[in-house]
Amino acid sequence: MRRLPPVLLEDGCPRELISLIRTILAACKEISFRVGQGALSGVLGSTLDENIQGETQKKLDVLTNQLLKDILLESGYVKAIASEEEDYTVAGNPNAEYIVAFDPLDGSSNTDINSLVGTIFSVMKAPEGSDPADQSIFMQPGKSQVAAGYVLYGPSTVLALTTGKGTRFFTLDKTHGSFLLTQDFAQVPEETNEYAINASNQRHWQPAMQNYINDLMAGETGPRARNFNMRWIAAMVGDVHRVLCRGGIFTYPTDTKDPNKPNKLRLLYEANPMAMLIEQAGGIASTGTERIMDIQPDAIHQRVAVILGSKNEVETCLGYHK
Ligand code: AFP
What we know:
Elements: H1 4-10, H2 15-37, E1 46-50, E2 56-58, H3 59-75, E3 78-83, E4 90-91, E5 98-106, E6 117-125, E7 145-153, E8 157-162, E9 167-173, E10 178-183, E11 194-196, H4 207-217, E12 229-230, H5 236-246, E13 249-252, E14 265-266, H6 267-280, E15 284-286, E16 303-304, E17 306-309, H7 311-321
Parallel strand pairs: 3-5, 11-12, 11-13
Antiparallel strand pairs: 1-2, 3-4, 5-6, 6-7, 7-8, 8-9, 9-10, 13-17, 14-16, 15-17
Helix pairs in contact: 2-3, 5-6
């Protein structure tokens, strides 16, 4: 099986970018080990702190953020980082070419129940001559990402990665510590019978999403004339992995549950990297009204509605939004 660096070299991926990706993965291997140790290493449960977004931080949120932050900044390969767990961006090497936004542990509420979690990352180029301390270097639309990926800590540790030449899966061989190519060019099937949404929010959705989900639930006796199945992992990384593996539609739509927070998922380090992986595998990623990767960000922790997955099903869902 082929290891990650030669695969990326064959693609013509710049050496500096390969080194940066390997640096992220070095941290992810350590995270994989720590997550796997679970209760044995006393890392489960919450801290007494909240992050800037008012969410209670899990001990593993703090630990994984520190690991990624330290290893990236020490490597010299990043000009700056942005993290879900950092209030502001953090400056790195002024001469480095790349910036990285990451969610160190997506789905961290799953840690205490030994369920799926993952690390999501997005790599962009820093504007030439830019100041590493300037937050605005991250205000680039997702279409300018040069690499995006996640590492899913499940029964096996799987990396989904794109550098703009398709989406690939690599599996961590824990005996040798290498990520080995286990699927070249993943393709999201265009058709699906599976959807993922937190249905407990149904009464708070906008009418378009209410109507769409009602029609899916009506099954073979409804307007869609077939039955649909539902899945919800409560970790975007797990739901998107399923969609990449066997198709489906995943959505976290706008809702009115909390007027101060109409959307849940973060643009820079959740929606954008997942959108790139999905598009590179032939799927679609939209907010309902626009392509996610076209959005011009205006804040580091900006949130957006997300509808992504199998081409035909996402298009059907978008039809309800017109
Ligand atoms: P964290 O990154 O704070 O763990 O949140 C996970 C998440 O943003 C996303 O991964 C899930 O799809 C979603 O939350 C689950 O939300 P519900 O709490 O509504 O199930």
